[in-house]
Please model this.
Amino acid sequence: MARKKLIAGNWKMNETLPEAVVLTQEISNIFEKDWLETVDVCICPPYIDLKPAKTVLDFDHLGIAVGAQNVFYEPKGAYTGEISVPMIKEVGCTYCIVGHSERRTLFGETNEDVNLKAKALLADGLSPIICVGESLEVREGGAYLDYVCAQVRAAYAGIAEAEAKDTVVAYEPIWAIGTGRTATPEQAEEVCAAIRETLTELYDQSVADTIRVLYGGSMNEGNAEMLLAMANIDGGLIGGASLKAQSFVAIVQAAL
Ligand code: PGA
Model:
């Protein structure tokens, strides 16, 4: 079944406020609105850049969405340094990345945290982009499909069918992130297909067919087309290449 592709830019901890305004404006300047009929596009800047980035996009009447890179699952309270779902919603976010491998490995985020964050986002009408992916060690050990599918099962625990339809999964092998070592289309497709099979087991085929499964890990304008041509790859989560307007827009064009 044809799913609308999603190209999401994960800016990570890059771009000060003025730099974020410039980058968003550069994307906007070379972006054609018609593309959004065939592909969904989202940028995920750091928290403090969200509002200015959204303002630039709104001013240009572009339907590019804005997403956060992380969120805390409690709605408010004494959680110094955290940002809530209502806060990111209020500045116009419709997506939020959860469980990125950098959060899991550098900040100790667990499968349970990822599940709570996904549920909190869905309860407020935002789409979580749930990241999963194995380390090089797990890949070389051979049990990577079991490992990734277990992450998927944990992330979806207690999420009802109706809400599951609003989720996105991003398969990001850790060995391919920021390394320039992209998974081959076949390697990426194998895992994305296994993720969809897991979603079919958790829900049913029709639900699994509506959930977009993205690939992320050194995706760029040179390899996007081949990756996006695979049956179970419904878009990309782009790190480094999303920080250059030309590269990001070229990847969007590869998804058309
Ligand atoms: P990369 O990052 O494209 O720079 O490899 C992807 C990601 O971490 O989301």
